[in-house]
Design a protein that fits this description.
By secondary structure, this protein is of the alpha+beta class. Strand 2 and strand 3 form a beta hairpin.
């Protein structure tokens, strides 16, 4: 089983330029990553005016819905494993190699952390990613690119990013 993430091709009546750019950015980011804590891109296809990403199916949904469905707190051992999974995924995309450029996710939140059948966490939805970012996040933000800010979930952004001021490395 697989998951499909589809979008109307450019030139169709309801296809927006922003959604196209986001989808293409996500494809590019996914093609650069292959890690146990990143949702896997298995392929891409075009069918009947749709561009589709064929993704690894994450049968337990996203972390936000998982937390809402719980009747109590997440057991400490599972919480620690989930934190490790997300941290390992972030470490992988944030540290470039000779063959892979740095990726800043740009919209990390529980809705973008997906769970497999064993409740392993995998980071997904790279539509707001910044690919090839320099080692200092502040260098990206100095460009003051409001179009990039618009692709992220505002309430989850660092306060510096919302105020249009320089973002610090610690952020």
């Amino acid at each position: 089983l697989v998951a499909l993430k589809c979008m109307l091709l450019p030139g169709t009546a309801v296809s927006s330029k922003k959604s196209q750019e986001s989808m293409y950015k996500e494809v590019k980011a996914c093609m650069l990553t292959s890690h146990e804590n990143i949702v896997g891109l298995l392929g891409i296809t075009v069918h009947c005016n749709y561009f589709c990403m064929v993704m690894q199916l994450m049968v337990c949904g996203n972390l936000a819905d998982f937390i809402l469905a719980l009747e109590g707190p997440i057991p400490p051992a599972l919480l620690l494993q989930m934190a490790r999974d997300v941290a390992n995924g972030l470490k992988f995309i944030h540290h470039p190699t000779e063959k892979r450029r740095r990726i800043i996710h740009g919209d990390l939140k529980t809705a973008n952390v997906l769970l497999d059948r064993n409740l392993n966490c995998k980071i997904g939805d790279f539509g707001g990613a910044i690919i090839g970012a320099s080692s200092m996040v502040s260098e990206m933000v100095e460009k003051n690119d409001s179009a990039l800010r618009g692709e992220r979930t505002g309430i989850f952004c660092a306060p510096e990013q919302l105020r249009d001021t320089q973002m610090k490395r610690e952020t």
